[in-house]
Amino acid sequence: MNFRTICLGALALSMVGGVAFAGALDEPDNMAPFFTDTSMKTMKPMAEFKTAFMAMPKEKQEAMKKECNDAAMSKPHAEFCANVQALGGAN
Fold first, then answer.
1. Cβ density class 11-44: b for 16+ within 10 Å, e for less
2. Are 78 and 38 in contact (CB under 8 A)?
3. How crowded is residue 70: how many other Cβ atoms within 10 Å of its Cβ?
4. N or C end: fewer C-beta atoms under 10 angstroms in the chain?
5. Do 68 and 89 touch, CB atoms closer than 8 A?
6. What is the pTM of this model?
């Protein structure tokens, strides 16, 4: 194998792998119901947050809880994860 082929293969794997590692908290479609604006800067009040969270499929709820329990994953989503924790997100 030549060096160029190896580099191109590694680049392709990293591009595909990067998408695969995106979690529930990184998906705009998952997060949009919890915010009042399209820029996702202003979180909804807790009552509306709870309604949106409970309306999600259990699998998505569990994925969000799991990510919020991971310090590295939850850091950029601190306010969101605090609400998930308040709803019993600690496992």
1. eeeeeeeeeeeeebbeeeeebeebbeeeeeeebb
2. no
3. 12
4. N
5. yes
6. 0.70
